[in-house]
Amino acid sequence: MPTYEYVTVDVFTDRRFGGNPLAVFPDARGLSDAQMQDLAREFNYSETTFVLPPADPRHTAEVRIFTPTTELPFAGHPNVGTGYVLASRAQAVPDHFTFEEKAGLVRVHILRDEAGRPNGARISSPQSLSVGIAVPTDLVAAAASLEDADIATTTHEPLVASVGTKFVIAEVASVDALRRAVPDIGRFRHAVVELDELQGRFALYLYARVEGDATRLRARMFAPLGGVIEDPATGSANATVAALLTSLAPGSDVDLAYDISQGEEIGRPSRLLATARKTAEGPVLSTVAGNCVPVMRGQVEI
């Protein structure tokens, strides 16, 4: 019976049992799609990753990302955590990895502590910012068990946006209102029926400005239809909001950095550092970075 090694790490934190847990299978050769999905469901983390040989030998690996219910084309904390795990196992730690994923190529820059040991990663989103449909404010408020007035629309209305994975992004009027948010699964189900453009996926990312600072944010992300009631730290969504807010900032040549906290409400405090850049000539590109802490390792027989 084949045996597969796994490693778990907490991502976007510098202490164990904070951040967002991730399971990584460093050598997933021989696993079928169904087995990968079964393993992701068994771990029941927001995501589990499976590392495979790359199609192009110039790249580091193919990385596949599964939630408990489905495969994702791209996600942030799985790439940060997988990059950290592979760097921690390498005899000679490179500065960068390149992962092949369904959304495209993901560039991973390894972060190091003062002694030169890997302690996290910064990833570049595989796609530039794309903005889709507007989503009715009342629908978003109801899905989060909030009042319509709790949703801020001065900077932008609730909308679908992506840098590799689509999210419904909405600003909340205050940190207090953000704390009060509770996902209403019935409303989530209603939304995907009402809005064909969501294509059955409704991952709701809410953020509030901390003390009015546009680059200090507090965030929460709910995706109950995907098996994630609330995510402790969502790298891809935070990279998306960094790109979105930068695209809306005054000026044609803008480079901004965002300090974002997430996970406090569910006891897994996380810190994410996101950047985005726009120019008059090109698309808006973003990165997201954070630290990682190892937690467990073991084997699974399939």
UniProtKB/TrEMBL annotation:
<dbReference type="GO" id="GO:0005737">
    <property type="term" value="C:cytoplasm"/>
</dbReference>
<dbReference type="InterPro" id="IPR003719">
    <property type="entry name" value="Phenazine_PhzF-like"/>
</dbReference>
<dbReference type="Pfam" id="PF02567">
    <property type="entry name" value="PhzC-PhzF"/>
</dbReference>
<feature type="active site">
    <location>
        <position position="47"/>
    </location>
</feature>
<dbReference type="GO" id="GO:0016853">
    <property type="term" value="F:isomerase activity"/>
</dbReference>
<protein>
    <submittedName>
        <fullName>PhzF family phenazine biosynthesis protein</fullName>
    </submittedName>
</protein>
<comment type="similarity">
    <text>Belongs to the PhzF family.</text>
</comment>
